[in-house]
Specification:
- The protein contains twelve helices and no strands.
- Helix 1 packs antiparallel against helix 11, helix 4 packs antiparallel against helix 9 and helix 7 runs antiparallel to helix 9.
- The N and C termini lie far apart (51 Å).
- By secondary structure, it is an all-alpha fold.
- It has a single domain, classed as ABC transporter involved in vitamin B12 uptake, BtuC.
- It is globular, with a radius of gyration of 18 Å.
Amino acid sequence: MVEPLLYSLTVGIFVGFSAGYLGSIMVLEKMALVGDALSHVALPGIALGIRLNLPDPLLGGFAFLFVSAVLIWHLGRITRLGFETLVGAMFTLALAVGILITPVPELLEALFGNITEVGLLHMISAIIISVVAILLTRAVYNKIVLSMISEELATSTGINVARINLLYLLLVSLVVAIGIKITGTLLVGFLVVVPAAAARNVSSNLFRYFALSSIFGAASASSGVMFSGLFNMAEAGPLVVLSGIAIFLTTVLVKWASKFRAA
């Protein structure tokens, strides 16, 4: 249990950090539903991976997330509907289908994660994907935000909005996929939403907001994994959520206290 716990802790730190960073855009632009809902889309892919006896069912989840991200992006271009609308429609379908076709013994693990199944290869993959996702997002951060504020303005400045949106969706999908092992498909979207929301409560500028979103994400995931190891629980997802909510409530109290002092 010691090695998987260390691997899971490392994965939690990197995935939580990158999820918080990417999620800061979603919360800033009021697209939290996208990050939360996108995570559920992986469930049918994981179920197919189990049914097909893949070496790691997560490969099926990643493939399904990748295809879904491209499909959502393409549908967005055709229908001109927002990402939150398309993802919201797709995630309910994916969750229903995934629950129906996932074998019962593996369903709990798929929904809530299993830190005992995290190995060295998964840890290395998580580190590489998280670092790449952060660097790529940082490189196009301003373009992503501008395209979300006004596509017309972004286009007039020479930004390929469609390409930027696709890149961002794929990066979020990558981070979500790699985090499923420790939190499960049902709860991994939490790391993209709540740490950024907590950071917004106590941030006075954008730099502080981006930094705290990442730090709170890493803290939520790593503390949840440590508590699951302490209590000898394989499913770390619920404890990751509880740790993140504790951080969020603390920031609410800090914000309330600062307003009370100012008054």
